[in-house]
Amino acid sequence: MNTIATAAALSLASFITFGVSAAAHQISAQQAQQLKPVGTISVSQVGGAPMDMRQALSKKAEQKGALAYHITEAHTGDTWHATTELYK
Fold it and tell me: Which residue blocks in 1-88 are alpha helix, DSSP H?
């Protein structure tokens, strides 16, 4: 029984790891120069943590077909807003 639980846990972990690696990721301005720009996006939210902003950007970038994004504008506080350039 323990072997089945271990195998199930490893299978789930590999699935989660693949999902995370497939998401669009943040890059530097220097890295962006090596990629093809494919558009821009922006996200805004009331409250939350910086990680929430990164997750929202990554999700929206992935929905637009981008592999990476570079933040060009960001404002934080009680509300936050970020604008990014998308890249393939």
Answer: 2-22, 29-32, 50-63
